[in-house]
Amino acid sequence: MIAPGVFAQRPAGTVTATDIVDRIRGKVGVEWKPDTVDTFKAGDPTAAVTGIAITTMATMDVLKQAVAAGANMVITAEPTFFAKADNPNPPAGRGQAANAMPDAVLAAKKDFIAQNGLVVWRFSDHWRLRKPDPLAQGLTDAMGWTKYQVAGDATHFELPAVTLDALAGDLKKKLGIRGGMRVVGDPQSEIKKVGLLTGTTALAASLRTMPTVDAIVAGEVREWESVEYAHDTVAAGMKKGMILLGRVISEEPGMKLCATWLQGFVSEVPVNWIPTGDPYWRPV
């Protein structure tokens, strides 16, 4: 959690949210796509920035921390308004009748953003296109696996032999996972070779990775695709495993890295990372 007032330790400059985004576009090192989710989601892009909060997901808790710390620009990897389209004014029919009252949770979030003069911008597509993959790089550092990385491959590792159960326990502790982790496979399976799939990935990634490793460490996959494939792989007698960290947890270190990167070319206002944290808890 960011301490109150940490963003107010330097006087605000005249840099606007649009200026910050233009600077990011010039520094990111990949061609900017015309069709992208990396756009402003709320607030006035011409507003003077007092501080920048980098996060994985702009939850209400994160937004409140940003306000308490004096930041008015929030850069988030994931949607703010509960859907891929990330539309603060979703069309009627999204799970409700055309004449339904506005959703109270959505309305409260929009009101909080407006009342506190926040500007929310999403930074996902182009951050993930950088090489090496910053999400994999950040997660590798957080897990302490840099020395085990296969040369020339940011997503493959050769670890000292460890059981699947012990590996999952170690990652739970290092990444501060409260309840979102799930594991497929025999707990006593010996794991040496590991493939990393950050964020959310489709079945094709698991099909490509599983044959070359003892276990996959992933963020988020569909249960009826990659999880079923991993389960059937184990049922066929292969000593394989899959550890699911949760999408947010798998992306957190990469967005912390994003804050460090942004600090390298934004000096007018403070830039800090606000962790989203594991959204789940597990009953005893």
C-alpha Rg (nearest Å):
20 Å
Biggest sheet descriptor? 5 strands, mixed
Beta-strand residue percentage: 15-25%
CATH architecture of the largest domain: 3-Layer(aba) Sandwich
Give the gist of this structure:
The protein is α/β, with parallel strands linked by helices.
Question: How would you explain this protein's 3D organization?
Answer:
α7 (203-209) packs parallel to α8. The two termini are 26 Å apart. A five-stranded mixed β-sheet has the order 1-4-3-2-10, with helices on both faces. The chain has 284 residues and is α/β, with parallel strands linked by helices. 34% of the residues lie in helices and 18% in strands. The radius of gyration is 20 Å and the shape is globular. The protein folds into two domains: 17-128, NIF3 (NGG1p interacting factor 3)-like (Udp-n-acetylmuramoylalanyl-d-glutamate--2,6- Diaminopimelate Ligase, Chain: A, domain 1), CATH 3.40.1390; 134-249, NIF3 (NGG1p interacting factor 3)-like (Udp-n-acetylmuramoylalanyl-d-glutamate--2,6- Diaminopimelate Ligase, Chain: A, domain 1, 3-Layer(aba) Sandwich), CATH 3.40.1390. α7 links the parallel β7 (190-200) and β8 (215-220). It is built from nine helices and ten strands.
